């Protein structure tokens, strides 16, 4: 593993202003690269699909480094999804754009990136932490006072 060379993708840039742009999935999450390459997830794969069927469909978009189809132990059929690995981001984007919502053995498959970083929640742009009352989170209940009184029930 140490002697193999890893392809490094340059972040895509916007030609208009030269800034880097992140690749987004259909749900708006930022696609991220795995350690090995760009992993594409194909869902709704027909249970009788074979590796050759997927190689034929996805091979048009680039060289597939790895193809993984989980099989049901009891039936031996495909569980309904497949993971495909591409070396470059361009190949993965081409596969997603070209194969998403296409038919494979009379079933429409959905294709998207397998690894994503979800968009930040509202109000937490670039911040960590748990939130709190000021940020729209849940307030904590107050501890009882040491003398056993509550603030609401003061005798005067």
Describe the structure using short key phrases.
single chain, 156 residues, alpha+beta, two-stranded antiparallel sheet, 2 helices, elongated
Summarize the structure.
The chain is α+β, with helices and mostly antiparallel strands. The protein has 2 helices and 7 strands; from the N terminus they run ββαββαβββ.
How many alpha or pi helices? 2
Question: Would you list the SSEs in sequence order as H and E?
Answer: EEHEEHEEE
What's the β-strand tally? Answer: 7
- The share of residues in extended strands comes to 15-25%
Q: Cα distance, first to last residue?
A: 78 Å
Shape: elongated
**In what order do the strands lie side by side in the largest sheet?**
3-4-2-6-5
Structural class: alpha+beta
Describe this structure in words.
A hairpin with a 2-residue loop joins β5 and β6. It is elongated, with a radius of gyration of 24 Å. With 156 residues, the chain is α+β, with helices and mostly antiparallel strands. It has helices at residues 51-58, 89-99; strands at 30-31, 38-43, 64-71, 78-86, 102-104, 107-113, 116-117.
């Amino acid at each position: 593993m140490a002697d193999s060379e890893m392809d490094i993708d340059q972040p895509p840039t916007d030609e208009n202003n030269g800034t880097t742009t992140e690749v987004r999935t259909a749900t708006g999450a930022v696609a991220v690269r795995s350690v090995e390459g760009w992993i594409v997830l194909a869902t709704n794969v027909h249970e009788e699909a074979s590796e050759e069927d997927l190689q034929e469909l996805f091979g048009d978009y680039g060289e597939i480094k790895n193809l993984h189809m989980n099989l049901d132990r009891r039936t031996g059929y495909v569980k309904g999804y497949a993971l495909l690995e591409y070396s470059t981001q361009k190949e993965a984007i081409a596969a997603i754009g070209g194969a998403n919502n296409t038919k494979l053995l009379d079933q429409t498959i959905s294709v998207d990136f397998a690894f994503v970083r979800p968009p930040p929640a509202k109000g937490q742009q670039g911040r960590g932490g748990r939130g709190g009352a000021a940020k729209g989170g849940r307030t904590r209940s107050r501890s009882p006072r040491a003398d056993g009184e509550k603030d609401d029930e003061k005798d005067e």
